[in-house]
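Milestone 3.1: sequence recovery, worked example.
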């Protein structure tokens, strides 16, 4: 038995058909498709605004439109090239070899290398960070690690059965580093493990890759996102690009520490990890690792702590009585740590360590290949072959110095840092950025152009780091600076006075470029400048 449609339905059907009858059938067919397309365009537009912000999106659109005007793009490219040429530090490459010499030089090549080395700048005591070992490069600790590296220059830990010596050295470097960062404490879980890498960037890359894959296995996250404070190292940007991870940048608080509330606001179902630094590279300030650990634990996500600078200072500074907040595996929620041995660990360049709370996480770092005709293959880090000489050099550095050696080095570095900090505070035109926790002191000025001050310091032989947001400069204090603290402060006072009395760009200086880059609203153009510079430099 069939029931008739209700009157209201018949009336609705009739009115709808009457309304639609005035349109062409093709129009009725295409309208939903156009509506769907428009909805997708609007969704993409609002997504871009959400990711980049309204201001950045508008600026990008305007600049893209302006570049369509005939001649504008050519003019912009020419101006960019002028800046790139000015940034070029290596000068022209006349005389650089482009092919093998017909006849080899034999041992005479060493004399040529010595001649080339003489062209390097005088770095002893004059560079922010850069060289962390104190003294002369021909004696003492320098000489020791050079000999250690030379002794094992031919080795490669990829060949486990051939070079068990460097395999042992790596395992012991990792274990000794882990012990400094809480592996012996019950709260660490007793499973801290890791590997040596080529540097802090590789350590961070591996930690991010491992966290991504671990969270995919644990929570099924296939569109990974990570959250970093604006002060976090640029290696996270590299990791995001390499491993296809959406990167969210959050502001720091008034003390230039990671804003935990801002981090919390960005966490969602796709978040795989958050990040803290101890300390951060720009200002030498330790993020609130405990608060970040609580956040990571509550959401069941990873927390990586960047200890590339602090790993071989903070444990000893704490022992010396300096106020050091918790930063290592004793903090619940910390799942991985990166720490450079080639900085304050005083090991040869190219040595870092990445550590994990347990083996379950670290297993996602490894790459195992079963179908290669060359045999079964497994590799722990990004590189396959690795220089055993550097591993040996790191082991030699740690064993030769021992706990007491690092303790004394830290005492000297922290005392020098506090002296420099006080000296800068005594210069009325300058102010310290935040409250430095370690040996990096950043300073700015509301009176003089800080980049011009940096240029004058450069003319006196100093190599400091220029920072942005806010415009500032920092010095990363090493053992090289311990004997020259007062020289640095005098040169800084004199440089400030020079700029105050004679403001304006220094001939050959980079202040105008840094200043312009900081004010340039189109960050894509700044990015293009950096890429052009790198492409012409290597």
């Amino acid at each position: 038995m069939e029931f008739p449609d209700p009157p209201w339905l018949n009336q609705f059907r009739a009115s709808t058909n009457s309304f639609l009858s005035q349109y062409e059938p093709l129009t009725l067919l295409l309208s939903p498709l156009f509506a769907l397309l428009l909805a997708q365009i609007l969704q993409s537009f609002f997504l871009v605004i959400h990711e980049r912000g309204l201001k950045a999106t508008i600026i990008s659109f305007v600049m893209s439109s302006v570049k369509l005007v005939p001649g504008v793009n050519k003019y912009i490219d020419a101006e960019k090239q002028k800046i790139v040429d000015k940034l070029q530090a290596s000068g022209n490459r006349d005389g650089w070899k482009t092919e093998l010499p017909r006849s080899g030089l034999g041992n005479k090549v060493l004399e040529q290398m010595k001649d080339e080395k003489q062209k390097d700048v005088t770095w002893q005591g004059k560079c922010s960070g850069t060289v962390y070992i104190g003294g002369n490069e021909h004696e003492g600790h320098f000489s020791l690690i050079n000999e250690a590296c030379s002794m094992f220059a031919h080795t490669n830990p990829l060949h486990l059965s051939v070079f068990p010596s460097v395999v042992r050295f790596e395992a012991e470097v990792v274990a000794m580093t882990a012990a400094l960062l809480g592996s012996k404490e019950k709260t660490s879980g007793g499973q801290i493990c890791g590997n040596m890498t080529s540097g802090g960037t590789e350590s961070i890359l591996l930690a991010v890759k491992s966290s991504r894959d671990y969270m995919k296995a644990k929570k099924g996250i296939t569109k990974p996102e990570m959250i970093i404070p604006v002060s976090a190292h640029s290696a996270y940007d590299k990791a995001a690009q390499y491993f296809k991870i959406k990167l969210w940048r959050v502001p720091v608080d008034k003390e230039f520490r990671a804003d935990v509330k801002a981090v919390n606001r960005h966490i969602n179902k796709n978040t795989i990890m958050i990040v803290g630094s101890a300390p951060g590279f720009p200002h030498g300030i330790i993020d609130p690792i405990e608060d970040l650990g609580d956040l990571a634990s509550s959401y069941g996500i990873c927390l990586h702590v960047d200890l590339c600078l602090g790993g071989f200072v903070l444990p000893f500074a704490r022992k010396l009585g300096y106020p050091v907040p918790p930063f290592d595996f004793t903090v619940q929620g910390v799942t991985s740590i990166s720490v450079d041995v080639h900085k304050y660990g005083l090991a040869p360049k190219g040595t870092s360590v990445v550590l994990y709370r347990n083996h379950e996480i670290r297993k996602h770092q490894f790459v195992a290949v079963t179908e290669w005709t060359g045999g079964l293959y497994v590799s722990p880090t990004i590189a396959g072959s690795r220089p055993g000489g550097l591993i040996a050099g790191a082991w030699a550095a740690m064993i030769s110095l021992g706990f007491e050696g690092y303790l004394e080095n830290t005492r000297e570095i922290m005392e020098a840092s506090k002296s420099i900090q006080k000296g800068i505070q005594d210069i009325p035109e300058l102010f310290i950025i935040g409250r430095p926790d370690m040996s990096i002191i950043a300073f700015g000025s509301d009176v003089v152009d800080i980049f011009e001050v940096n240029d004058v310091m450069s003319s006196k032989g100093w190599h400091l780091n220029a920072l942005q947001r806010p415009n500032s400069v920092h010095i990363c204090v090493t053992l090289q600076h311990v004997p020259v603290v007062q020289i640095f402060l005098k040169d800084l006072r004199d440089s400030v006075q020079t700029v105050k009395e004679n403001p304006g760009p220094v001939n050959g200086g980079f202040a105008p470029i840094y200043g312009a880059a900081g004010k340039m609203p189109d960050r894509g153009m700044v990015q293009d400048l950096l890429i052009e510079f790198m492409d012409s430099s290597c």
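The first helix runs from residue 7 to 20. The domain at 446-537 is CATH 3.90.1150.10 (Aspartate Aminotransferase, domain 1).
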